[in-house]
Amino acid sequence: KMFLRPLMIDTGAAVTYQINGLKTATREFFYDRDDKAGDKVYTEKKERNMKNIILASASPRRKALLEQIGLSFDVIVSKVSESTNSVHPEDVVKDLAYQKAKKVFDSHRDSIVIGADTFVYNEGKKLGKPTGYDNWKEMLRSLSGHRHYVYTGVCVLWCGENNNTHILSFAEPTKVMVHELTDEDINEYILKGEAI
């Protein structure tokens, strides 16, 4: 969740952006004039990032989500083996999200690093990324007319006082119902890239 907290001071004001209480940026204002009602009018001075934010993912959807809430950030793709000893779907995505975030965080400890991982589970089986057209078609046929779950895990790493590492980690399941798909539907999805 993202919220704003205004911090008023005698000579100006600041609006601090926070994510779950973690300060990420400050917008500063200076006193300009009093209006006709006698209220002080402030003009924005500048925007300063308190900590650089890094998205450890190549996903265009995750990039778009951060852009939607107005965050400035860099993208550094995290390459990990994506293997885990976890079994439960929520633990799997949380563990892999942590691995991705930590891979980048180890060399960027002065930044806030966000890692994420998503898997589709259908009838108790984890579906990986399609390896080709036939595999893609087979996966969509298995989802057709059935309910499946999409699990997403997120991990945020940053350094606090005394250089201590802080971790915010969570997972969210989403239940998805897919209507019956014809071969024509499936081919259209694949051609448009909508099934990625």
Description:
The protein is of the alpha+beta class and 196 residues long. Strands 5, 6, 7, 8, 9 and 10 form a six-stranded mixed beta sheet that branches. Strands 1-2-3-4 form a four-stranded antiparallel beta sheet, with no helix packed on it. Helix 3 packs across helix 4. It is extended.
Compact overview of the structure:
The protein has 196 residues and is of the alpha+beta class.
List the helices and strands and how they pair.
Blueprint (H helix, E strand, L loop, with lengths): L1 E8 L2 E8 L2 E13 L5 E10 L2 E4 L4 H9 L5 E2 L13 H17 L5 E12 L2 E3 L5 H11 L3 E13 L5 E13 L5 H10 L4
Parallel strand pairs: 5-6, 5-7
Antiparallel strand pairs: 1-2, 2-3, 3-4, 7-8, 7-9, 9-10
Helix pairs in contact: 3-4
Radius of gyration: 22 Å
Mean pLDDT over the full residue set: 80
Helix content: 10-25%
Backbone structural class: alpha+beta
Number of strands: 10
The largest β sheet comes out as: 6 strands, mixed
Hey, roughly how much beta strand do the residues contain? 35-45%
Uncertain runs: 1-12
Shape: extended
Through-space gap between termini: 27 Å
Number of helices: 4
Written as H for each helix and E for each strand, in order along the chain, the element string is: EEEEEHEHEEHEEH
